[in-house]
Write a structure and sequence with these properties.
Chain lengths: 308, 347
């Protein structure tokens, strides 16, 4: 049985496979953004972090020969950009959303500036786990080539889901994010907490970038990330600041992104770009449906500037 | 007056810091900053040719910056300039094609009006969502950017594609007579004049008109605006609509003065660079004219820097990012400099 003979089943399979593959970067950026927003800040610059992560991950993998060192390098570059966001946002009367836009421009430029030498060479890629061994159908095998980062991301989501309400650190982050004044009065360091949350959020986004360049699509080139980082903020709203919901939302967005290319294989062309816009339309529709003039979004941290 | 000196000095300081940091960055990449800055000057401002390129870049930047600055006056952070520009460009083409055969001047005016109307409607959508449903305008305009670009790509790759052009995916072209020439003598298209006029008009409107004052009250304190009975919904729509119209006009100008047809060439980041210009200008429409010129020059010098130093085009983007960060950080200084603090108390 070949891929084309699978017909509409092939489309469904490609969407499932695509959901798993494409969702991983979505998952990491949305978890990072969730953590940052739980502390009361918004980092709109994760697109730049993502690209810097992709570039440094690819470069480090190429130079050292180890893709996992690449992931580490990506995480480090993400931490630096997160720290930069926090440092500027910590200053009085500085709008964190605007800082995010600045970091989006800065990070994107920096990634393409420093990444120029890595456009040609081939870096070692991250291994994948072949979970489709039970089947003889190549399409199923291809769909179930899953990166270990996908499972790490899911584990991270459940860990965050547990840690935010159950650990001292998680509670401090939430207290600072819900009411900075009260947290300060209770003696918790607001800016320090937010700095750490934004830095760690940057680490996650950096790892998401490493996935892009070292796993899928697995190359370093311009146009590598198509707004996945910018979408992080929307994803988090969609997931209602719940790390486990981030998993479902990422899978949904991954599947939606895979729909256009999958439809093309069965001859439904002409709607390629429109299906590509599905995640954005979906998010906007959800925002419209769930927002209200009278009260803020359910589950949103009280200090969040996008929510007042 | 002193407040203006304070603004000018702090902004100049932030720019100086950004250029110093970028110099360090160049040093770290084994480039001589002085040589690079000399080329930046040459490529952006030094010759009549580079000035033309700079002014050509500055024209759309002024208009997309207004898309940030006008809503900002009402307390909204709109980042949808890119989408409004694209919407304006597409509708400008549609209007031009639909209304072929009119006198040239009428046709051009119609095409520009269609672009402005489309851009205005595009951002007004975000304003309406904000007012009616409380949807955050920053997020909705960000999403609308992607939706507009997807619509553009969809339309030019199928429904309005010009199949006679095989090398490039592009839409039908507007009738040739509707295209505008350069302003005689300086070799820059008329979009520049439109951009400057739009900034002047926005300044007058925001400073000296009743609706402008009402928008400022709304931006200053929405609750107070409500209590004194201002029509908040209408003012929100007005601010968003005018801002969007400016960006839509930028798209139409790119059509009538540069491309003649809609294509991916409309999506070159004017919307995002416009956000930088607006923040550099501290949302002041007159200052936008100057800073659009500055940012346009930095962008325009990218090509020359690339050829001279074999460095990536992205260098100019790194510099723009650094400037943006320094300018935002400099917000912390307002009211902190003693010289101005004393003066403020007395003034």
């Amino acid at each position: 049985m070949t891929g084309t003979e699978l017909g509409w089943w092939g489309v469904a399979l490609a969407v499932v496979g695509g959901a798993i593959r494409v969702s991983t970067p979505y998952l990491f950026v949305s978890l990072g953004e969730t953590l940052t927003e739980k502390s009361g800040r918004v980092n709109l610059g994760l697109e730049g972090t993502l690209l810097m992560g992709a570039m440094s991950g690819y470069g480090a993998s190429y130079l050292t020969g180890s893709p996992w060192l690449g992931v580490l390098a990506a995480a480090a570059s993400g931490a630096l950009l997160g720290l930069l966001h926090a440092a500027v946002s910590n200053l009085p009367r500085v709008n964190d959303i605007a800082v995010g836009i600045a970091l989006f421009i800065f990070g994107t430029g920096l990634a393409f500036f420093l990444g120029k030498p890595f456009v040609q060479p081939q870096a070692p890629r991250l291994p994948t786990l072949a979970l489709g061994g039970f089947s003889d159908v190549p399409a199923i095998r291809a769909a179930l080539e899953v990166s270990p980062l996908f499972f790490i991301g899911i584990a991270l989501a459940f860990a965050m889901h547990w840690a935010l309400p159950n650990t001292r650190w998680g509670l401090i982050v939430r207290a600072v994010g819900d009411n900075a004044e009260a947290a300060r009065t209770a003696g918790y360091p607001v800016n320090l907490t937010r700095t750490l949350a934004t830095t760690l959020g940057g680490v996650f986004a950096g790892v998401a970038g490493a996935f892009l360049s070292l796993s899928y699509p697995g190359t370093w080139a311009e146009g590598l990330s198509s707004g996945q980082g910018l979408m992080a903020v929307a994803l988090v709203i969609f997931a209602r600041w719940n790390p486990v919901h981030c998993v479902w939302v990422s899978l949904l967005f991954g599947g939606a992104s895979a729909l256009g290319p999958a439809l093309q294989t069965v001859g439904v062309t002409g709607y390629y770009y429109l299906t590509g816009a599905a995640p954005y339309v979906l998010t906007l529709a959800l925002l419209i449906a769930s927002s209200s003039r009278r009260h803020r979004l359910a589950g949103a941290p009280g200090e969040l500037s996008i929510n007042r | 007056m002193r407040a203006r000196v304070e603004t000018a000095l702090i902004t100049a300081g932030a720019l100086a810091l950004a250029f110093a940091l970028f110099g360090l960055f160049l040093l770290a990449n084994r480039l001589n900053p002085l040589e690079v800055y000399a080329i930046l000057w040459l490529g952006g401002f030094g010759t009549s040719f580079s000035l033309q390129a700079t002014l050509t870049q500055a024209a759309p930047l002024m208009l997309t910056a207004l898309c940030v600055a006008i809503p900002a006056r009402a307390g909204l952070l709109v980042i949808g300039g890119e989408g409004a520009l694209v919407a304006g460009g597409v509708c400008a083409v549609l209007a031009g094609v639909a209304a072929a055969g009119l006198p040239a001047a009428v046709g051009t005016a119609l095409v520009c009006a269609a672009g402005a109307a489309a851009g205005g409607a595009w951002i007004a959508m975000a304003g309406a969502l904000k007012h009616l449903r409380g949807v955050n305008e920053t997020i909705s305009t960000l999403l609308l950017n992607y939706i507009a670009i997807a619509l553009l790509n969809h339309l030019v790759s199928g429904p309005i594609r010009d199949h006679a052009v095989s090398l490039k995916v592009t839409s039908w072209s507007i009738p040739q007579p509707y295209m505008v020439d350069a302003i005689p003598g300086i070799g820059v298209h008329w979009g520049l004049a439109l951009g400057v006029l739009a900034c002047l008009a926005a300044y007058v409107l925001l400073r000296y008109s009743v609706p402008g004052f009402a928008i400022a009250v709304l931006g200053g304190n929405a609750r107070a605006a409500q209590l004194v009975g201002l029509p908040i919904g209408r003012l929100t729509l007005l601010a968003c609509g005018l801002g969007g119209a400016a960006a839509g006009l930028a798209g139409a100008v790119e059509i009538v003065a540069v491309h003649g047809a809609a294509s991916g060439s409309l999506v070159v980041g004017f919307g995002y660079a416009g956000i930088l210009v607006a923040f550099l200008a501290r949302q002041n429409p007159l200052a936008i004219v100057f800073f659009a010129f500055l940012v346009g020059g930095i962008s325009a010098s990218g090509g020359l820097m690339q050829r001279r130093f074999d460095m990536p085009d992205a260098a100019t983007q790194v510099l723009q990012g650094m400037i943006f960060l320094c300018v935002l950080g400099s917000n912390a200084l307002y009211g902190r400099v003693r010289m101005f603090r004393v003066a403020r108390a007395g003034a």
